[in-house]
Automatic annotation (TrEMBL), chain A:
UniProt name for this protein: DUF1468 domain-containing protein
Organism: Marinomonas posidonica (strain CECT 7376 / NCIMB 14433 / IVIA-Po-181)
DUF1468 domain: residues covered: 19-153
Keyword terms of this UniProt record: Membrane, Transmembrane, Transmembrane helix
This protein's record includes keyword Flavoprotein: no
Alphabetical list of Pfam families matching this protein: TctB
Protein origin, superkingdom: Bacteria
Transmembrane domains' residue ranges: 17-34, 46-66, 78-98, 104-122, 129-148
Sections of the chain in a coiled coil: none
UniProtKB/TrEMBL annotation, chain B:
Keyword Lipid metabolism tagged: no
Protein's name in the database: DUF112 domain-containing protein
InterPro entries cross-referenced by the UniProt entry: DUF112_TM (IPR002823)
Superkingdom of origin organism: Bacteria
Chain ranges passing through the membrane: 16-42, 54-71, 77-95, 107-132, 144-164, 320-339, 351-374, 386-404, 410-440, 461-483
DUF112 domain: residues covered: 17-435
Keywords, alphabetical: Membrane, Transmembrane, Transmembrane helix
Length: 171, 500
């Protein structure tokens, strides 16, 4: 678990904008929580959400003011250190994977996702990547689909027919 | 007698025994592989096991938790990369030992001492939890509310140097927990007219996003770290060594169990405190601390495993998680229809004794797996990140989908994953978010109960707090935490008080 990020003495690129967006978000959430039941009653449905949104607003303001005081980190660029292309590309890949998961089905979409992302991150020959992706997918499929009985989207692959014909071969 | 029956349940059933063994085995690898965390693994596992029988699911998850805390030490010793935060202190002396060619001995000794620590933690849990639960029945709603706030504040203040960032994260989590129809009045909260949001946002999707996706995205920036391989020789530790270091191990185990039992503190802080204790109390170490002192390895390893038993105390008796892992664990218990808290001990005492028995069993499996299979271990741990990270994404997406067979959960998970990535980037801890989501309904309900009892008067609520010693202690602790982060304390009082 790497949630223990130490706070740098300097300000990272984009930190001020992020802090500002948190304030805007908190104001919006406070307004939304006010709309639940207003200031009607301390035990109303909206009282607790309002208190938490107000806490968020206060905390984000403190964080923003503190960030303003910090000097910018030298030699650090947002698109090469904070949000490098590798992160953006992988994010886009995951998004596409999630979009096509139901229509293409688990097997096909996962295989394509694994192949492209392993080829991109591991950078070995196409055959090696193909073998690794196939092997990983088979292992995940056996453990989660067959052993854990997790229902996964079937999509265009006639998965049940294939399993039925394989089981028929054993009989 | 009943207690003994439930204690032995997972020992006698072949299914439960096998699942505990599998969980512990997986946990050791999950804990050891840098990039995989116990929190991540348990979050993903919940989504796959929620339709299982509760006992089966618990056995697997308890094993993963117990094994994971131990597993972090392996990579700390071999590669100087702590597999988990609780193994940070282990690397200080463990890695120097490995560099001297004593990796096997260090692993063997840390395994045995981890198991000793684990047993002490479980023993204290079995002894203390029933009486704490009995005491907890007398808690007022305001005490529960304050315990919830205290837990989030402690995790927030300890997991980063900025309390404001921790509090923001905790409050954000609490707010996420309120989304949906209000359980008391059925008012819509943050639903924006969307019927799918009536049930709220699934906490598991938030967990997988915050711990699975965001952590893996973060690791993309450190793809090319070189791995140094170590030679591993003798693993079984010498009996003379075990005898020599046993008193230290027992002492630091008690530190571990106490620190682990405090809300907001977990194995990482326990391990660092134990390391400090060993450093102060060892008069003439054979080797200096930081250069491969065995004391510096044993102390944190005993303490972090003892902290597991400690962390179970507030979790099972009060329903308050101590850290992110236990928050995820409480989420799992809720999903399986169990309601952690004092009533769990009264209404379902068998669950308590079952858990104690299961923890003991998992601890024994650590000894078995810890002292064997080291060759396979070094192969698996060196799995390149280029293969590991896509697999984490795949499992996270499949896990999120498996919760309700709904694509919506994947969107939530991705949204929280991306937001979590930026939170981590700018130094916001993500642990309090999960803690907030889990504790939201407890804090909200108890706040409303407390204020209704006082007929809506905040002044009466505060006045009555001073009539109960417990409420006073909780209130003072919250005020103290806030006060110690104000400039008045950090700039004026603290320097004078500690003569810095």
């Amino acid at each position: 678990m790497s949630s223990h990020e130490s706070i740098p003495e300097t300000r990272k690129p984009g930190e001020r904008l992020f802090g500002f967006l948190l304030i805007i978000g908190s104001v919006y959430l406070f307004w939304q929580s006010y709309k639940i039941s207003g200031f009607s009653d301390l035990s109303s449905a909206g009282a607790f959400p309002m208190a938490t949104a107000a806490t968020m607003l206060l905390a984000s303001c403190i964080v923003f003011v503190n960030t303003l005081k910090l000097p910018a980190t030298q030699g650090m660029d947002f698109f090469s250190h904070c949000f490098p292309p590798i992160v953006a590309i992988i994010m886009a890949l995951i998004l596409i994977y999630a979009v096509v998961l139901e229509s293409l089905g688990f097997i096909l979409s996962s295989f394509i996702f694994l192949f492209i992302s392993i080829q991109f991150l591991y950078r070995r020959s196409v055959l090696t990547t193909l073998a690794i992706s196939l092997l990983s997918l088979i292992m995940v499929y056996i453990v989660f689909r067959l052993v854990f009985q997790v229902v996964l989207p079937e999509g265009i692959v006639p998965e049940r027919d294939i399993i039925a014909s394989i089981t028929a071969l054993w009989r | 007698m009943d207690a003994l029956n439930y204690f032995a349940m997972s020992w006698l059933s072949p299914d439960l025994l096998a699942l505990t063994a599998l969980g512990t085995f997986l946990g050791i690898y999950v804990g050891a592989i840098p990039g995989l965390s116990v929190t991540m693994a348990v979050s993903i596992l919940i989504s796959f096991t929620f339709s299982w029988d509760v006992n089966n699911a618990l056995c697997l998850m308890v094993g993963v938790y117990m094994g994971g805390v131990y597993g972090g030490s392996r990579t700390a010793i071999l590669l100087n990369i702590p597999g988990a935060p609780s193994a940070i202190a282990t690397a200080l002396d463990g890695y120097p030992l490995a560099k001297k060619g004593l990796a096997g001995e260090a692993i063997g000794l840390s395994t045995v001492m981890s198991v000793v620590g684990g047993f002490i933690g479980i023993f204290v849990l079995a002894l203390a939890a029933p009486s704490i639960a009995e005491f907890a029945i007398t808690f007022q709603p305001r005490d529960y509310m304050m315990l919830g706030i205290l837990g989030i504040m402690l995790v927030g203040s300890l997991s980063g140097s900025s309390l404001a960032k921790g509090i923001f994260a905790g409050a954000f989590g609490l707010l996420i927990g309120t989304v949906g129809l209000d359980p008391m009045t059925a008012d819509e909260r943050f639903t924006f007219g969307i019927i799918e949001l009536w049930d709220g946002i699934n906490p598991v999707a938030v967990m997988i996003g915050m711990f699975g996706i965001s952590e893996a995205l973060h690791q993309l920036q450190h793809m090319n770290k070189a791995v140094i391989k170590q030679k591993i020789s003798r693993i079984i530790p010498r009996l003379s060594d075990v005898k020599k270091y046993l008193p230290l191990s027992i002492r630091t185990s008690f530190i571990g169990v106490i620190v682990g039992a405090l809300p907001g503190t977990g194995g990482d802080i326990a391990a660092l405190m134990a390391y400090d204790h060993a450093k102060r109390t060892t008069k003439d170490p054979d080797v200096a601390f930081g250069e491969g002192a065995k004391e510096g390895l044993i102390a944190p390893e005993s303490a972090n495993n003892a902290a597991v038993g400690g962390a179970y105390i507030p979790m099972l008796t009060l329903g308050i998680p101590g850290d992110a892992v236990t928050a995820v664990f409480i989420g799992a218990l809720f999903i399986h229809g169990l309601n952690p808290g004092p009533l769990l001990m009264v209404e379902q005492p068998h669950m308590f004794w079952f858990t104690v028995g299961n923890l003991t069993l998992a601890n024994l499996f650590i000894l078995v797996f810890g002292l064997t299979g080291i060759k396979l271990f070094s192969k698996i741990v060196e799995c390149p990140k280029g293969i590991l990270i896509p697999l984490i994404f795949l499992l996270s997406i499949v896990g999120a989908y498996a919760i309700n067979n709904a694509i919506t959960d994947i969107w939530w998970m991705l949204a929280f994953g991306v937001f979590g990535y930026f939170m981590r980037l700018y130094g916001f801890p993500v642990g309090p978010v999960i803690l907030g989501v889990i504790l939201s309904s407890l804090t909200d309900e108890n706040w409303r109960r407390a204020i209704l009892t006082e007929r809506g008067s905040v002044i009466d609520l505060f006045a009555h707090m001073f009539t109960s010693p417990l409420s006073v202690v909780l209130l003072m602790t919250i005020v103290l935490i806030l006060f110690t982060k104000t400039p008045l304390w950090t700039k004026m009082i603290k320097p004078k008080l500690f003569k810095i």
